[in-house]
Design brief:
By secondary structure, the protein is mainly alpha-helical. It has five helices and four strands. Helix 2 runs antiparallel to helix 3.
């Protein structure tokens, strides 16, 4: 393939611009806000699950507390009824009287046990509510932090988009000065190796950073200036410059 030395030198400008665009793309992918947002979203999901579980727990505790309180009321009513019978002298039979007194003792103990259950359920309810409130507060904080991270990410992406746009404009101008056939070869090599063209400086290919042997350097010296050369090692387009050491 033939191309003017000027067109070949423009390939180095093109390679520099492609490297710049690659660095911008890497910066775009590596923005710390991406990881920050991912962590915030993950924590927000955990909090949503916790709040849902706590809501369900509160519902269960409310039902259990209501049942326990109803049981307390029922037992208290039976105790009051039995005491009324006892206090008003409605029971005179010694055997029946003994049974009634025993039932009152048993019911009083049962009432005390149920009241303990109610207190325990109330404490568990209070703990669940505090946990729920804490999770909701953290979720609100995450929303604020996420908005801040989004604003920082979007600002950084905007700056990178501007840099990328300017580099793309310069790339378009450079490509216009290079023959289409040479551009096609450059793009093929760039797709294969990441870099399509490299300079020859002081007898070394700047693509693979290997020094050329004497035979290869003599071959390059003998080649016409408009001949498009390839590195024998990495197969990139090898561009001769004033610093090639030929």
């Amino acid at each position: 393939m033939k191309a003017s030395p000027e067109a070949q030198l423009r390939l180095l400008e093109l390679a520099d611009l492609d490297a710049e665009l690659g660095r911008i793309a890497a910066r775009r992918r590596g923005l710390p806000e991406h990881a920050e947002l991912e962590q915030l979203d993950q924590r927000d999901g955990q909090l949503r699950d916790s709040i849902a579980a706590l809501d369900a727990q509160e519902g269960d505790l409310k039902r259990a507390q209501a049942k326990a309180e109803a049981d307390v009321d029922q037992v208290r009513s039976r105790v009051d009824r039995d005491r009324k019978r006892l206090d008003t002298g409605q029971v005179s039979n010694p055997r029946e009287l003994e049974n009634l007194q025993s039932e009152i003792v048993s019911l009083t103990r049962r009432q005390s046990d149920l009241e303990e259950i109610v207190l325990e359920l109330m404490e568990r309810m209070e703990t669940a509510q505090h946990s729920n409130q804490a999770a909701a507060a953290e979720q609100a904080e995450i929303t604020t932090r996420r908005q801040d991270a989004l604003a920082r990410r979007d600002a950084a992406l905007g700056e990178l988009a501007e840099l990328s746009g300017k580099a793309e404009d310069r790339r378009t101008a450079v490509v216009a000065d290079i023959p289409a056939e040479l551009i096609k070869l450059y793009e093929q090599l760039r797709a294969q190796h990441g870099v399509g063209a490299a300079a020859l400086r002081r007898g070394q290919c700047q693509g693979c950073h290997l020094s050329l042997n004497t035979v290869d350097l003599n071959t390059i010296r003998a080649a016409p200036p408009d001949e498009v050369l390839r590195c024998e090692e990495c197969r990139r387009i090898l561009v001769r410059t004033a610093e090639s050491g030929l």
